[in-house]
Design a protein that fits this description.
Largest sheet: 6 strands, parallel
Protein name: HAD superfamily (YqeG)
CATH class: Alpha Beta
Number of domains: 1
Strand order of the largest sheet: 1-6-5-2-3-4
InterPro entries: HAD-like_sf, HAD-SF_hydro_IIIA, HAD_2, HAD_sf, PGPP1/Gep4
Strand content: 5-15%
Number of strands: 6
Distance between the termini: 19 Å
Helix content: 25-40%
Number of helices: 7
CATH topology: Rossmann fold
Structural class: alpha/beta
CATH superfamily: HAD superfamily/HAD-like
Length: 183
């Protein structure tokens, strides 16, 4: 398929649907995640109770959550300040630079991480270029920062081609997404 580089490995509703048990079952040591509209709604800098619970569970399980963002260092530092997560800013997605930096710095293998994001043109493509599994999630809120609008337009056209018949199907868990992929 022409647009395979934009097709995610898995699709789940939100980053919170990646349970600790499922991540451990698949030997995931680090969840790399986009920031805006994936981990945090861009207009909610404090995050939700659900986010803080998920971060606590992953931390207690020894699974690191690392933000890989195209935003500036100042913006990301401010956004994740109260979340106790590490981050890479100016990652230049869809270039794999930020993902590869995390793999190198943490000495992680490509199958020990997943890259989670709400955009195919940045997050999923970067994961493909880095050779790591990608997890596409629904965006947390419908509105986006203005810079994202053109990506969303292109992405919607790509989705029509990639998911001709049924559209994107978002699963309730990683296990559900993996099982569906086997069928």
């Amino acid at each position: 398929m022409v647009l395979n580089f934009l097709k995610p490995t898995y699709c789940v509703k939100s980053v919170y649907d990646l349970s600790v048990d499922e991540l451990k079952k698949h030997s995931i040591k680090a969840v790399l995640t986009d920031l805006d509209n994936t981990l945090l709604a861009w207009n909610n800098p404090n995050g939700t109770v659900e986010l803080h619970e998920w971060l606590k569970e992953t931390r207690e399980a020894g699974i690191e959550v690392i933000v890989v963002s195209n935003n500036t260092w100042d913006r990301v530092k401010k956004a994740v300040g109260g979340l106790e997560v590490d981050y890479v800013a100016w990652s230049l997605k869809p270039l794999p630079r930020g993902i590869l930096k995390v793999l190198h710095d943490r000495q992680l293998k490509k199958d020990e991480v997943v890259m989670v994001g709400d955009q195919m043109l940045t997050d999923v493509w970067a994961a493909h270029l880095a050779g790591v599994p990608s997890v596409l999630v629904e965006r947390l809120i419908e509105s986006d920062m203005w810079q994202t609008w053109i990506n969303r337009f292109i992405e919607n056209q790509a989705k029509k081609i990639i998911y001709k018949k049924d559209g994107v199907i978002f699963y309730d868990s990683l296990t559900d997404a993996i099982e569906a992929k086997k069928d």
